[in-house]
Design brief:
About 50% of the residues lie in helices and about 15% in strands. The mean pLDDT is about 95. The chain is globular. By secondary structure, it is α/β, with parallel strands linked by helices. Strands 4-3-1-2-9-10 form a six-stranded parallel beta sheet, sandwiched between helices. The structure holds D-glutamic acid (DGL).
């Protein structure tokens, strides 16, 4: 059985793993969440590249035959450095997200020319303009919006309890209003951060209250699809087959298990602590 390495700065990449397991069940998955060095989204390109490369090499040492960079920030700022440093194929999240936005534009009544994509992402991702470049190369107009408060709100689980949810909805309202101010005709919303798929129901509610319907693109699902299509070995569907899952975290295993289960939608059994330095 082949091994797929999945890397994220923390728990958010488990949303990508969740989709991967669904599409490619006959694989062994080794996931690394670099929780000790999270958040990447507020750090410099050099630091992000250094952290991401050491994390990626760790997964190669654990037998990964293919690596999925499930972190938007690491993909946006360091995918070329990671590819240059590794002997295995590396798939990031920006290209699949772009492809999904392109597919949505083609299928919409506006078509590619009239589509305007708003990308919500971390500060580092928006500063890199990796999404704008990629979307522009695909012929799509885009506006990037940094949303630095969303990762902590998701990490703290401020999604359900009414008073907490109200705060998250208000933060989303401000970010979406600011994004839409720059792009009043935008019709596609690309979730350019691993944590944001968990906010999808709240984003839908916010867009309704703003009377601004948009098609929401989740790069987690698009990335899993891209991995399935690019897989250098055949997928063998076996009824009832459960993939082998092994998790590593660079900080508290207890926290990883507790928060991670809501990202993965199932309990995380085997989590090991690893020290990758600072
Ligand atoms: N994984 C990061 C991303 O997708 C979000 C968390 C962080 O800032 O490290 O951009």
């Amino acid at each position: 059985m082949k091994t797929i390495g999945v890397f994220d700065s923390g728990f958010g990449g488990l949303t990508v793993l969740r989709e991967l397991i669904r599409l490619i069940p006959d694989a062994r998955y080794v996931y690394l969440g670099d929780t000790a060095r999270l958040p990447y989204g507020s750090k410099s390109r050099e630091t992000i590249a250094r952290y991401a490369i050491s994390s990626a090499k760790f997964l190669v040492d654990r037998g990964a035959d293919l690596l999925v960079i499930a972190c938007n920030t690491a993909t946006a700022l360091a995918i070329d450095d990671i590819r240059a440093a590794l002997p295995i194929p590396v798939i990031g999240v920006v290209e699949p997200g772009t492809q999904a936005a392109l597919d949505a534009a083609k299928a919409s009544s506006r078509g590619i020319e009239e589509t305007h994509v708003v990308v919500l992402a971390t500060a580092a991702t928006t500063q890199s303009q990796a999404y704008s470049r990629s979307l522009s190369a695909a012929g799509l107009l885009s506006t990037e919006k940094a949303c630095p408060l969303l990762v902590p709100l998701v990490e703290e689980g401020w999604l359900e309890q009414p008073a907490q949810k109200a705060v998250t909805l208000e933060v989303l309202r401000v970010y979406l209003l600011e994004g839409l101010e720059k792009a009043p005709n935008a019709n596609v919303l690309l979730l350019g951060c691993t944590h944001y798929p968990l906010l999808k129901p709240l984003i839908e509610t916010t867009l309704k209250t703003l009377h601004h319907p948009m098609q929401i693109i989740d790069s987690a699902a698009a990335t899993a699809q891209a991995v399935a299509e690019a897989l250098p070995w055949p997928i063998v569907p076996v009824e009832g087959l459960q993939p082998e899952l092994l998790f590593y975290a660079t900080d508290s295993i207890e926290k990883f298990q507790r928060l991670g289960s809501s990202f993965l939608n199932q309990p995380l059994a085997q989590v090991r602590l690893v020290d990758l330095g600072g």
